Amino acid sequence: MFGPVSGAQFNPVVSLVFALRGELRPGHLLVFALAQIIGGIAGTLPAHAMFELPLLQFSAHIRTGPAQWLSEMVATFALVLTILGTLHSRPSAVPASVALVIVAGYWFTASTSFANPAVTIARTLSDTFAGIAPANAPLFIAAQIIGGLSAWLVADRVLGWRNSGA
Which residues have C-beta within 8 Å of that of residue 74, sequence separation ≥ 6? Predict the structure, then answer.
């Protein structure tokens, strides 16, 4: 539904990969990332309201350690490789593929698969089971970037899944 507007990109790591592939201008990358982060933060307010929670809050939920970081790398790797592979083989299936890998990631990772820096930042503002303490967010985001860049390198250099303009 949002493909014509933004390429349906809601994830700064995905946008970074598309910029590296030459499919998103560097100036647009910054605008996309800011919009994605603002959108994630804005989404916490109605989520809290639906459950009659305080609208503004900070998470105290500790999520840290090698297993959590590896989980975020794996989840983001799976997400980005799924996007690139599906674009390569069957572009019309990208929306369903993304939905399936996100749902699967929730179950196959110890971190419950944030796989998105905008989501990670938004979840610092939710003191629920879904939250992450703000101090833990930077290493989650670093792991997500590593996972996304690794998927791009595998897709591009190992599998040859380059964009049509490359």
Answer: 108, 109, 147
